[in-house]
Amino acid sequence: MLRLTHTAMPGKLQKILPKKNLPLIHQILPVFVLAAFAVLASFLWQGHKGFNLWDEGYLWYGAQRVLLGEVPLRDFMSYDPGRYYWSAALMSLWGDNGIMALRGAVAGFQAVGLFMGLVLIAQKSAPRFKFPGFLYLLLSAITLMVWMYPRHKLFDISLSILLIGVLIFLVQHPTWLRYFVCGLCIGLVAVFGRNHGVYGALGSAGVMVWLAVKSGSRRTQPGLMEGFLLWAAGVAAGFTPLLAMLLLVPGFAVAFWESIRFLFEVKATNLPLPIPWPWKVSFDSIPTDEAIRSVLVGVFFIGILIFSLVGIGWVLFQKFRSKAVSPALVASVFLGLPYAHYAYSRADVGHLAQGIFPLLIGCLVLLAAQPAKIKWPFAVALCAASLWVMHAFHPGWQCGASGQCKAIEISGSQLMVSPEVESDVRLLRKLAEEYTPDDRSFVVTPFWPGGYPLLNAKSPMWEIYALFPRSEDFQQEEIKRIAAASPGFVLIYDLPLDGREELRFRNTHPLIYSYIIEHFDRLPDSSNPAYQIYTSRKPAR
Predict the structure, then answer these.
(1) Is cis: bond before 446, omega within 30 of 0?
(2) 162 in Cβ contact with 209 (< 8 Å)
């Protein structure tokens, strides 16, 4: 049960509301207002700043196509369907398919995640835990908000927070119903991202084993096998929307299983990057503030792993001793290990931000119970370190610090973007105006899926984000789609991703690359040597 610091309610409101509802209002309303205010403030500050033709464009394209009746995975390369239908539903409600409508839909989901995170920090996690005052909640909100990056991944970040809440819900009172509800929520989460469903399942497995250790009488809670069966039934129920799509949407089942098979084919979910260990930072080669940031990034990478490994050992040790443990700690450490794997799968700041929330919430909940001389120094240090690491990555800060952002109209909204992005947008619009009259198709590959929603166009290729090598059969199917669409121009971003030559488009998709060279004419001049621009070959007279 939540218990906020004393907050007087207006006399009129006290007369209107029944007395039995006053405690709930006192507990939930301030947390909700803080979460909503934090998200709104961030949106007003940087909602109109920055634009990403890469990953943000990937999400935007999918939302636009769903609005037009297409199906994720079947009709275009995509994440799992949930996030697209959430975005499309709100964008449809607003009557807008533009980038700001998408960002508004994502911010709505972010507010849900932040609200859940603050409720978890605020709740009474153990008998000796006291609800932190408003100042501590505000400090926590700043810490969580600064890690909510990048904005096109706020679905994933919010899902990780919701999973923590679900596992805490189970640990607090492991009843028959709560096992089922826990599974139900994890099934729903998997509709938005199957990787989060897997992480939730792994975290649940750890929690259920922990609950079964020296559980005593089973009259008040199910045993391990009974609990697992209830949980599995809940997962199936929560996963019903996607199961219905598999059964009822023609072609979706084939596309869904193919997307799973492809993961086993490439044997990876991400393109790996070297882990930024803090001891590898050279203070001589980079500015001091950047070096400190790099060290802190490395410390956070180590922290998410140590927190989970040590935490799992601790909660098991306490369980064997029949000692009480904070439910938030139990949930965070068992969920932290799967999310640490996600952060390490591509060890950059963006993936660290998506894997760090079990650590953040676990630490903030634990600190809330400590004496002031421990709570405040460590909470302030965590917030300060988070701000130092993350502030420079937010588009609002980048535009303000550089002073170089340029105004440009995108989907009816005025955005402030970097000069490079402004140049890229102008290039795409110029090519479309010159070579795709009457809404003729075009191809932009492999890294700019945002080019299609920018110009309200459909991609001729299913694979709108061509990062991994593809088989000959797959490439032949894509070639058929390109030939049928007869695009007016093709732009190939000839970049060795992560500096790896084998990841150039010509090496990951050699058959498609050869087809383009053979059937299109390359323009001699380009604003960027990496931009290979080809135009439709005119028939010989």
Answers:
(1) yes
(2) no
The Cα–Cα gap between 212 and 408 comes to 58
Packing angle, helices 510-519 and 472-485, rounded to 10 = 30
Residues paired with residue 414 on neighbouring β-strands, in sequence order: 409
Strands (E), 235-384: none
Q: Using 50, 70 and 90 to split pLDDT, how confident is the model at 296?
A: very high
User: So what's the pLDDT on residue 539?
Assistant: 55
Arithmetic mean of pLDDT, 279-299 = 92
119 neighbors 165 (Cβ within 8 angstroms):
yes
The span from the CA of 154 to the CA of 162, in Å, is 12
- Phi–psi pair at 82, nearest 5 degrees: -50, -50
CA–CA gap between residue 35 and residue 122 (Å, rounded): 12
The sign of the torsion formed by the CA atoms of 313, 319, 325, 327 equals: positive
pLDDT tens for 82-119 read 999 999 999 999 999 999 999 999 999 999 999 999 99
Contact in structure between 301 and 359 (CB atoms under 8 Å):
no
Contacts of 441 (CB under 8 A, 6+ apart): 457, 458, 460, 485, 486, 487, 488
Structure tokens at 426: 């102008």
Task: Judge whether 109 and 93 are in contact, CB under 8 Å.
Answer: no
Residue 144 CA to residue 353 CA, distance in Å, equals 10
Neighbours of 250 (CB within 10 A): 8
- Please state, for a pLDDT cut of 90, what percent of the chain lies above it: 83
Q: CA 452, CA 341: separation in Å to the nearest integer?
A: 33
Structure confidence at residue 126 (pLDDT) = 36
Residue 371 burial by Cβ neighbours in a 10 Å radius (0-12, 13-18, 19+): exposed
pLDDT for residue 9 is more than 90: no
Beta-carbon count within 10 A of 247 CB: 9
